[in-house]
Amino acid sequence: MTSFQALVVREAEAGNPKSAAPSIEQLTDDDLPEYPGDDTVVVDIDHSSLNYKDGMALTGKGRIIRSFPMVPGIDFSGTVVSSESDRFAPGDAVILTGWAVGERFWGGYSQRQRVKADWLVSRPDSMSSVQAMGIGTAGLTSMLCVLGLENGGVTPGDGPIVVTGAAGGVGSVAIAVLASLGYEVTAVTGRPEEHDYLRSLGASAFLTRDEMSEEPKPLESETWAGAVDAVGSTMLAKVIAQTKYQGVVTACGLAGGVDLPSTVMPFILRGVRLQGIDSVNAPTADREAAWSRLATDLPSDLLDSMTEIVPMSSLPEQGQAIMAGQTRGRVVVDPSA
Question: How does DSSP classify residue 194?
């Protein structure tokens, strides 16, 4: 029987919260979850990645884990070992993102996993497993934001796009993709030491977190043709107030809070559109379209420059770092190390 390692979070013992700390365990195929129906797929995982939700799961913040024991990791890329689905066969290269994997269902911080076929998409032929997870959930979300801007009619000639949380995973990929498509990009970050990095991805101007976190007026000077916001709260309200007539703001994150202290004035006086972006339950067709675009619109050299590969054994420390806003770009996880 195949034996493999996985990072497992178990429920805390009464009076001992430290007992819930994630740890590497040796598992077998018999430990993998079962799902009703006849469409499950077993995947040998090559790589996973670190996302904000993963940081919450690893640190216990936000109570994102719904049941125990849990293998965190909201995405992975790997190779099909066995399949009960007509959609996939052994040897197929696949990607999984979302569907509450790593929250309600066992996820990617393992060398092997059993999942539902509907949760998988084929990995583009031109994309390696490392590149797929260099993109990961954050990058897929970024591409869905770009598609949201395009579907809203925003073109490079309409004016600059502002990207908040710019040095994070969503922001980094968004800047690289938008710049490659010809958009002028302004990056918002609270870390001025990251300006050179963001400039290398294609950002041409910068704003500080502090100035974009000031309480917004109902309407401010029209500045942005569109936006990719991963922060929420006051910063999102500020962006909306500064968006041009019929501009599009895509909102995909809540690192700054879940509230939105805005008014209806930008929407009814300027026709601004606020487009929510969800990558967790996005339809398969939307996912496939986004991955296809990522394979062509995200320059591989920029993807490589924003990607760091870490061993699975380092995840407890990596989880603390991403929750403290100390990570840059994309962190790819090697489950074999």
Answer: G
